[in-house]
Amino acid sequence: VASGVTVMLALLCLSVADVNGTAGLGPIGAMAIAIAMIAMLTLLPALLVVFGRWPFWPFIPHVGDRGNTAMHGPWRRIGDRIARRPRPVWIGAIVVLLVMCLGWLNYSSALNQGNSFRGDVEAVQGQRLLSKSFPNGANVPTDVIVPDAARVAGVRRALAGVDGVASADVVRRTAAGTQLSVILEPDPYSTAAFDLIPRLRTTARAAGGPQVLVGGPTAVERDLRKYATRDTKLIIPIVLIVVLLVLIVLLRALVAPLLLVATVILSFLAALGTTFVVSDWVFGFPGSDPSLPLFAFVFLVALGIDYNIFLMARVREETFRYGTRAGMIRGLAMTGGVITSAGIVLAGTFAVLGVLPLVFLTELGFAIAFGVLLDTFLVRSVLVPAVVLDIGQRVWWPSRLAHEGEPGGTTPEAEHEEDEEDDVAAAEPVPAA
Fold first, then answer.
1. What average pLDDT does this structure show over 248-274?
2. How far apart are CA 320 and CA 323, in angstroms?
3. What is the pTM of this model?
4. CA atoms within 13 A on the CB side of 194
5. Contacts with 63 (C-beta within 8 Å, 6 or more apart), sequence order
């Protein structure tokens, strides 16, 4: 429930976006997560009871079989190794992530409608053909509406004198105003054309008054990119606050949630930094869409917090009985396989976006797939356990777990004896009602 609610709340934060496509994704995505969560908590258990053990074929479990335990398995061995020297482990993991973050130096928002296809399409071919004999913006003019007919000539002269404008001509007169068609010299969907729009608006309003409007496909695309950037700066802090509050309620602590949110942010920056480098150096893409950081952040943070919840909720339960150190190792041993399996499946799902012909979807799929794997195998399985083991019970501050002494009997031998007692109790037949 905590996992599903966290993802739903993160998606609902998209509703405050100015871009309609982004805002509409929030409620739809949250509703889908809610339906899936209800199905997994009701329908799936019912089906497993109806069909018995056969859905696990060919590895059908039987009563008395030794499955994954807190004392055995690869994740227990990894936890024991981390516990020997946790500080060098988490320092080394952070260094690796910071190196990946340097990929942000390669970030470019030069991706636009003209170069967003991985292959060659007819529209792009036609644009290149027209640009050989005509100004680049000839087929996509910028529209200017001048309400005051007396100022049309002055607006036209002012716009024609702006660097980057090939021509400005009157194309229509109506009772609402006069429409000018402005032909730009650069590609109408290039960043150079987008940068011209604010100058055109300033010039046109200075000559024709504040009621002059500048529109057209280039202006629309420029405004879309502007508000996509604004949405990124607004929504990311909101998502972080929402996620932090959920973790505080779940773990009943403050230090641990702050630590987990910090690791999620670092993981996101590292994943996207690597994406920018791979997109440029490996795939040769012209840049990234301005909305890529926002979508990647929402998905990676929501999914990363999922794994945090799976891990730390179990660690907290084990801590009550065995203490923070043994609880961390046992929690990792019991959830490592689940988190790894979920991460691999999820990464494979998002990697499918890489076969689509749009650069944006390819970059998004790679960013999320790589980020999930990074979070699964490095952040959640190495960095978080190492930091918790180094900090100790202070990670639970201000809850009572941070102030009480560590429970006794936390040696591996004591753990093993208690696990055997639990196994014997679990194997005893349950009396009929």
1. 92
2. 6
3. 0.84
4. 16
5. 427
